[in-house]
Amino acid sequence: MSDEESSGVVRRDRFSGGPAREFMSSLAADERIFAADVAVDRAHVVMLEEQGIVESEVAADVLAALEDVEAAGHGALPDGEDVHEAIETAVIERVGPDGGKMHTARSRNDEVATCIRYRLRRDLLDAVESTLALRESLRETAEEHLETVMPGYTHLQPAQPTTVAHFLLSYEAAFARDTARLLDAYDRTNVSPLGAAAFAGTPFDVDRERTAELLGFDGVLGNSMDASSARDFLAESVSALSTHAVTLSGLAEDLVVFANKGHVELSDDYSSTSSIMPQKVNPDTLELVRATAGDAASGLNGLLTTLKGLPRAYNRDLQRATPHAWRAVDDVSAATEVAAGAVATAEWPEETLADAAADGFSTATGVADALAMAGLPFRTAHEVVAEAANRADGETPDLATLDAVAEDVLGDTLFEYVSREHVERTLDPAYSVASRDSAGGPAPEAVATQLDEAAARFDAHEEGRAERAEALESADGRLAAEVNARV
């Protein structure tokens, strides 16, 4: 059978040609859901045979043909408008007209929606796995630097001393929320539309719960019109990926800036040099991680813009919606893996960080806090320290300067409120960090608690990912057993 003849098997001559065929075809892009379509076809045929809708002999022939089509691969499919039509055509070529019974009681509308969900849920679990690897890198590095003091910044200006562990765990907490969002997106993706047909259901006595079970879905979408047309699971997934990419971009930006200041040394595996300036060590990979957020956000915008004007039930615009999800999940997962590697292999120069931790009178708040603890209104204490900083021209003021300002502002010596020894301690970045032991703070004991919390979150999310993955593997085994019993 020629390509031209085979392409007309499903649609016949009326819709088999014309200049719009290539424009409408998604066959090449559908390679991603080839395996998903074969699985969905198998589950549907098993259900049709169990329900007495298709004869056992026909079901066996179709399932055998699907095995042959799968072995031949996507590249061997005949021309078609999409992978669904091409696979059906390939089955009919092998079985004859009875091969067309595989499409009984369904439409390409519910079929494609099922295939997308079937594939995307696995991609989401892979994305979750990459976030877990990144969080593990952050946590392990934090454990090594519980007491490594470093400068903290707001508005990119020296603010207060903190630690490398406190900084890294701030991102671990954010990535944990990203992981939770991806798992939530998985759960709303993992429901089956199969059996909804075009949008108005079918008169055949189908068992939608059975196909959902065979394919590892947690349940079915009840309303058939919603089931065939809904793509909010794509929007939720790409939104979760985009949010995660924004968090990634923040981490990448901080590491790029810190590398510029000499506060972190990135491995050569995650850097490159200039083509003309051999002394350069450029944080190129992290710059690309940073850029991924823009790609993901644009994909989300494109997806939402495609969906926003659609009338209910199926519209062909949806064919243009799905690629946004594939690009987002691939790009963001790859960027996450790179970020994990960059964190795991980076070096944090402790002496350099300790020297920089006091820059810009970063312990000023500690002095103000000490005065406030001694009974001064915090705003008055703030005024004293601010004036001392002004007189020291941005440097850390000495005790004489602080005392002189206190005399001017308070009419009394500074040491009527706090001891000389205590003021000296508050000017030390390490003491400043150690004193900030409130829940979530940078003091080592407070960070140790955060490490325990991070480990507990990690274990819960890893267990959730593993349970979902195991459920899919079990479903694959059930479907394979049903197919083997018939072929």
UniProtKB/TrEMBL annotation:
It comes from the Archaea. It catalyses: 2-(N(omega)-L-arginino)succinate = fumarate + L-arginine. Its EC number is 4.3.2.1. Keywords: Amino-acid biosynthesis, Arginine biosynthesis, Cytoplasm, Lyase. It is found in: Cytoplasm. GO terms for molecular function: argininosuccinate lyase activity. One of its GO terms (biological process) is L-arginine biosynthetic process via ornithine. Residues 361-433 form the Argininosuccinate lyase C-terminal domain. The keyword Cytoplasm applies. Pfam families: ASL_C2 (PF14698), Lyase_1 (PF00206). Its main location: cytoplasm. GO terms for cellular component: cytosol. The keyword Cytoplasm applies. Pathway: Amino-acid biosynthesis; L-arginine biosynthesis; L-arginine from L-ornithine and carbamoyl phosphate: step 3/3. Residues 46-294 form the Fumarate lyase N-terminal domain. CDD domains: Argininosuccinate_lyase (cd01359). PANTHER family: ARGININOSUCCINATE LYASE. Belongs to the lyase 1 family. Argininosuccinate lyase subfamily. This is Argininosuccinate lyase. It comes from Halopelagius longus. The gene is argH.
